Amino acid sequence: MNKIIVNTDGGARGNPGPAAIGVVISDGTKIIKEYGKTIGTATNNIAEYEAVISALETLSKDLGDKSKQTDILIRADSELIVRQLEGKYKVKEPNLQKQFIRVYNIKSKFKSVSYLHVFREQNKEADRLVNEALDNK
């Protein structure tokens, strides 16, 4: 497996409020793993970052030594988070700075990690997982 595509989403009901993440991991043709889980009380932006962090941590653990030969594409519908992770937007908010650093440290475990902003319609499965986690909490 040389390239993995990951759709991530995070959401909070209220801002801040009860929050959850959704992650869909695929090889481009089939889903390898998907999950949603609650993360306590958070803002939407923190939840979006937590989804990326969780996906990268899961992949690092699942791939083990193979992670260094793997390219990861993170697809997310949060333009803010994607642009911050690409280095196009500054990360001014202190709590988001902490999340940014966590992503930065985890991504070194892979050959490469890139980011793509997608519209919500292209991220339906990850969004569904967020809402299911919140509905079932």
Structure at a glance:
The protein has 137 residues and is an alpha/beta fold. The chain has four helices and five strands; from the N terminus they run E-E-E-H-E-H-H-E-H. It has helices at 44-63, 79-86, 94-107, 124-135, and strands at 3-12, 17-26, 31-42, 71-76, 112-117.
Spatial gap, N to C terminus: 34 Å
Largest pleated sheet: 5 strands, mixed
Strand content: 25-35%
Give the spatial strand order of the biggest sheet. Answer: 3-2-1-4-5
Shape: globular
The second-level CATH architecture is 2-Layer Sandwich
CATH class: Alpha Beta
Rg (CA only): 14 Å
Topology, number of strands? 5
- Treating each run of at least 4 consecutive H or I residues as one helix, how many helices? 4
Helix content: 25-40%
Q: Which helices and strands occur, and which strands form pairs?
A:
Elements: E1 3-12, E2 17-26, E3 31-42, H1 44-63, E4 71-76, H2 79-86, H3 94-107, E5 112-117, H4 124-135
Parallel strand pairs: 1-4, 4-5
Antiparallel strand pairs: 1-2, 2-3
Helix pairs in contact: 1-3
Structure description:
This protein has 137 residues and is α/β, with parallel strands linked by helices. The protein has one domain (3-135): Nucleotidyltransferase, domain 5, CATH 3.30.420. The protein is 39% helix and 32% strand. Strand 1 (3-12) and strand 2 form a beta hairpin. The longest helix has 20 residues, at 44-63. The chain is globular, with a radius of gyration of 14 Å. The model has no long low-confidence stretch (mean pLDDT 96).
